[in-house]
Amino acid sequence: MLADRIKSAVASCAVGALAAHLVATVLQNTPDSYNQDLRKFTGGWPIPGWRFFAPNPGVQNVHLLVRETAGDGPTPWRDVTPVVPHGWTQVLYNPRSRGPKALFDAMQQLSVMSANQADFAWVTQSLPYELVLAASRAAAAEGAQALQFLLMNVFPSAPAEHRMKPILTSEWIPLGASARMTGASG
To answer: Do 163 and 156 touch, CB atoms closer than 8 A?
Structure first.
């Protein structure tokens, strides 16, 4: 009889602890997280904090647009953002995603610099700027004399008048063999 009471008490404690842990986990993962208040009640017991899309889901896309000059004025802006094909095999192995991912990360870093009001001269000396510039040069039309690139945030779910927001516009960058050599060495 005493053994049954002990087993029942242990089972009740285990169920109670599991229920308390589940309630604390739910409270920790609400949009207005109460984790600051819960830390003093957990006694050092870690509560999982699931933050999918860390911490907010993506609501914008960054696009790279390029235009060139070829003597008769600038061309219209062209979207040269790389498109990564998606298929069922890419879940396991997708080596072609690394280049576009590096460019995306560089564009995101330039977005952060722009949002933090970084000095343009400092931005143009950064590695993300150099990577975006190299991608822009690779996309430049044959025979172009100069190019300019623009990073544009696109908010697909926003109203039409607020859907696009420019992030960064480069100065006109000379092209040609001598300009490419200067850009590569400097």
So the answer is: yes
Which is more confident, 19 or 101?
19
* Three-class SS of 125-183: CCHHHHHHHHHHHHHCCCCCCEEEEEEEEECCCCCHHHCEEEEEECCCEECCHHHHHHH
Q: In 3-state terms, what secondary structure has residue 8?
A: helix
Per-residue pLDDT of 25-58, as tens digits, reads 777 666 555 445 565 666 666 666 665 555 556 6
Q: Torsions phi, psi of 57, nearest 5?
A: -65, 150
Locate the domains of the chain by residue range. Answer: 1-53, 61-185
Residue pair 166/114 in contact (Cβ under 8 Å)? The answer is no
Q: How many residues does the chain have?
A: 186
The rounded radius of gyration (Å) of the Cα atoms in the chain is 26
- Beta carbons within 10 angstroms of residue 65's beta carbon: 19
The model's pLDDT over 127-143, given as tens digits with 9 standing for 90+, comes to 999 989 999 999 998 88
Reported confidence tier of residue 13, pLDDT bands at 50, 70, 90: very high
